[in-house]
């Protein structure tokens, strides 16, 4: 089997369907189907069983996928080492962070860096999921909380201060909320997948009588909802202040969050990555 065939089997094993696997390889579903049929015909055995849950690897499929994963790991390791050895201040740096952190913190910093290093291209990847540094889904990641990846080199960048905010028009209509109550008030919250975050738990604990008025996993959308008068929102102060939102005191400070940056250890020697990290850490204040 060729390396392309092995990559195809591994992608199908990971994704479970031809269409999803095709997206990771930039191939159409019909092309994926034809190539899988050809590989199975050449081997004389099935690599996957077609089930209601998608494509499930057979014993042979698991064997092939396991060897393909080991080969992929070696290719990725070589790629990281070769990339990490690059000393020119030029080329692409793939950076991942949440959208609001890009908008309000990183982009002003990146503008200064790119002006000083015009041959470096920053590729911004807006993701809420944890990207795989081993697979080089990103070269540099900014994340709330630390990293558990054993190959990640990480450092704390800054702390973000949060507060409870609302528009003046909302407060004129509803008045200030009473701590340990919140009846007749509406809350602007993260979506339910992020209901465990400390600021969400804090807000619902202090205002148990308030009802949800809007949910989003985007801090910027939450801020826009607060400006529109949809309710009370816990927001980073650096997002809320420029919008003219009014701070609301519940007698207890909202929990802040720490931001860490991380990159794969193999990329540590890369000159353009070191230059960007140095510029960011020197420019971003220790508390925002």
Task: Produce the secondary structure layout.
Blueprint lengths: L2 H13 L2 H8 L3 H15 L4 E4 L2 E4 L1 H26 L6 E7 L1 H18 L3 E7 L13 E5 L7 E9 L1 E5 L1 H7 L11 E4 L8 H9 L4 E5 L3 H9 L4 E5 H4 L5 E2 L9 E8 L6 H13 L5
Parallel strand pairs: 3-4, 3-5, 8-9, 8-10
Antiparallel strand pairs: 1-2, 5-12, 6-12, 7-10, 7-11
Helix pairs in contact: 1-2, 1-4, 2-3, 5-10
Helix content: 40-55%
Terminal CA distance reads 54 Å
Order of secondary-structure elements: HHHEEHEHEEEEHEHEHEHEEH
* CATH T-level fold name of the largest domain: D-Maltodextrin-Binding Protein, domain 2
Please name the fourth-level CATH homologous superfamily of the largest domain.
Periplasmic binding protein-like II
Q: What is the helix tally?
A: 10
Oligomeric status of the shown chains? single chain
From the helix content, strand content and strand pairing, which structural class follows? alpha/beta
The averaged pLDDT comes out at 90
Strand content: 15-25%
Largest sheet: 5 strands, mixed
Strand order of the largest sheet: 4-3-5-12-6
Unreliable spans are none
Number of extended strands: 12
Explained architecture:
This protein is α/β, with parallel strands linked by helices and 288 residues long. It folds into 3 domains: 3-84, Winged helix-like DNA-binding domain superfamily/Winged helix DNA-binding domain (Arc Repressor Mutant, subunit A), CATH 1.10.10; 91-159 and 258-283, Periplasmic binding protein-like II (D-Maltodextrin-Binding Protein, domain 2, 3-Layer(aba) Sandwich), CATH 3.40.190.10; 162-255, 3-Layer(aba) Sandwich (D-Maltodextrin-Binding Protein, domain 2). It contains 10 helices and 12 strands. It has a 5-stranded mixed β-sheet, covered by helices on one side. Helix 5 (99-116) links the parallel strand 3 and strand 4. The N and C termini lie far apart (54 Å).
């Amino acid at each position: 089997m060729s390396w392309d065939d092995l990559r195809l089997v591994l992608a199908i094993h990971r994704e479970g369907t031809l269409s999803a696997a095709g997206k990771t390889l930039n191939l159409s579903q019909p092309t994926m189907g034809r190539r899988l049929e050809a590989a199975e015909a050449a081997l004389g055995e099935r690599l996957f069983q077609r089930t209601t849950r998608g494509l499930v690897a057979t014993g042979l499929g698991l064997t092939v996928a396991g060897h393909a994963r080991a080969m992929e790991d070696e290719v990725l390791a070589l790629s990281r080492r070769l990339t990490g050895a690059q000393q020119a201040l030029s080329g692409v740096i793939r950076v991942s962070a949440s959208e609001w952190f890009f908008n309000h913190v990183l982009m002003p910093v990146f503008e200064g860096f790119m002006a000083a290093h015009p041959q470096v291209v920053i590729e911004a990847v807006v993701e809420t999921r944890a990207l795989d540094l081993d697979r080089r889904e990103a070269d540099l990641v900014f994340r709330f909380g630390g990293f558990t990846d054993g190959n990640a080199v990480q450092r704390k960048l800054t702390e973000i201060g949060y507060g409870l905010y609302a528009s003046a028009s909302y407060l004129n209509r509803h008045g200030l909320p009473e701590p340990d109550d919140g009846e007749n008030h509406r809350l602007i919250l993260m979506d339910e997948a992020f209901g465990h975050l400390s600021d969400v738990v804090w807000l619902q604990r202090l205002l148990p009588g308030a009802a949800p008025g809007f949910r989003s996993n985007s801090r910027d959308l939450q801020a826009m909802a607060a400006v529109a008068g949809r309710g009370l929102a816990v927001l980073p102060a650096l997002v809320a202040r420029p919008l003219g939102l009014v701070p609301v005191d519940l007698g207890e400070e909202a929990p802040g969050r720490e931001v860490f940056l991380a990159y794969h250890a193999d990329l540590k020697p890369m000159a353009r990555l070191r230059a960007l990290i140095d510029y960011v850490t020197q420019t971003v204040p220790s508390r925002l």
